[in-house]
């Protein structure tokens, strides 16, 4: 009986230890995240001002603002989405609504999901070889946008597909039974019901593009430009690349570090803001869901 | 054929063409990287490429072994940091926390995944690297610094996929175990974890893929010296950094050798993905 009691107690103690260990791990993770964000916010906020956001850099990157970098990131992101979103959604529509689900579609899906995990620097390499050198677009907004667009294409195809597959088949059947054609059904029934998921996927893609550095390293980005870009064939400054360059180039590490804090804060606010928007939209459409 | 029918057919053909072009772009990437990278590998021999110790592009010496070892070291280092913490956090969130807490904390972890890699690199440079330099010695830019930062970066991948697979374990397993008199911890350890094993392994492999492919954070904090490190405090260069550092000015065979580096990365990722897919498919079949 005593042995039994001891065994039970021991089990309880083990349970307590185990529980505390996993709890501690979770707490440590959130503390690290907190420290990370605290550092960037507390140091970055002292740097950020209206001038910082809207002025050109001055004195060889040691003073002034980061406006061209923000603008450049904006151009690159818009370009990438303009390219990837229509292509991705239409491809997803074909694959879910028209293609007969067989071996070929399965192979294509595996290919797409593999490409989603190819390292971003490999996309950069590809962009350099194809757009910059072979097609002679040069180091430009166009080359960078296309490279980034291709990088998020798998993400957009996959999330659009998931959103389309979530629409119940009964919706399609009811529409067809009422005499609508296939395209009418897709356009008026399937797409409106899948739009929440598609938008969420697209916005998450935007968040990813805005923060990427490796793909634009050789295809679009430059440390410094005198004038704002005036065509899609101009080089641009970009926010993530600017942070990287501030920390690895130039000769005034102290002043550059301060600017890098400010630029990091701006980038984090942009990217987290975009992701929050995606979460918000997802929840909004989930509540509106009719089935 | 009516106008409506003709439109329907046109739309179908147009969509088919678009889908094909989207997919073929993705195929073109593979072909491009391989066609630029493989000739030089065969010219100098796979052996000297994969096992050569010297990387002097100007003297036609393209040994990638130090970079391969560098990538392997920081990747395993990141797993040592990321897997215990990530798995423990996933267990805490699925088995021991209240529903409400989980609903608050899970989106925060998703946000962690959204922080750009260059910001992690920046944090590494301004906080972690000086800290390691002052407390442990060495240059600070090191295998250790890169492993810790990468470990943090792969947390969201490990946590969210592990949570999914833990939650996929049927409720009846838990109930059966508790009914037999097991404590909650025993249930987790002996019933839930084994049942979720394949998903957890898949999450670790995907985390590994993310760590190997990461470029910007590693380039900023790993030091990038081409040598085989003797301790975790030595600097190291990875395959990804090798491409990023030198592609800007490379030409001729040097350029091809960097594409070959990309080919090796590409193959490693494909292998990891195939393993991850196979384990999760096997896990699903087992249920």
Topology:
The complex is a heterodimer of chains A (291) and B (287).
Chain A lengths: L1 H46 L2 H5 L2 E2 L4 E2 L2 H32 L4 H14 L3 H15 L6 H26 L2 H9 L4 H30 L27 H10 L4 H36 L3
Antiparallel strand pairs in A: 1-2
Chain B lengths: L2 H42 L1 H6 L3 E2 L4 E2 L2 H32 L2 H16 L2 H19 L7 H25 L3 H9 L4 H12 L1 H17 L2 H6 L17 H8 L5 H35 L1
Antiparallel strand pairs in B: 1-2
- State Rg of chain A: 25 Å
What letter string, H or E per element, gives the SSE order of chain B? HHEEHHHHHHHHHH
Helix proportion of chain B: over 70%
Shape of chain B: globular
Structural class, judged by helices and strands of chain A? mainly alpha
Characterization of this structure:
- The complex is a heterodimer of chains A (291) and B (287).
- Chain A is mainly α and 291 residues long.
- Chain A is built from ten helices and two strands; from the N terminus they run H-H-E-E-H-H-H-H-H-H-H-H.
- Chain A folds into two domains: 46 residues; 236 residues, MetI-like (MetI-like fold, Orthogonal Bundle), CATH 1.10.3720.
- Chain A has a two-stranded antiparallel ribbon with strand order 1-2.
- In chain A, a hairpin with a 4-residue loop joins strand 1 and strand 2.
- By secondary structure, chain B is an all-alpha fold.
- Chain B has one domain: MetI-like (MetI-like fold).
- Helices cover 79% and strands 1% of the residues of chain B.
- Chain B has twelve helices and two strands.
- In chain B, helix 4 crosses helix 6 and helix 11 runs antiparallel to helix 12.
- The longest helix of chain B has 42 residues.
- Chain B starts with a helix and ends with a helix.
- The mean pLDDT of chain B is 88.
- Chains A and B meet through helix 1, helix 3, helix 4, helix 5 and helix 6 of A and helix 1, helix 3, helix 4, helix 5 and helix 8 of B.
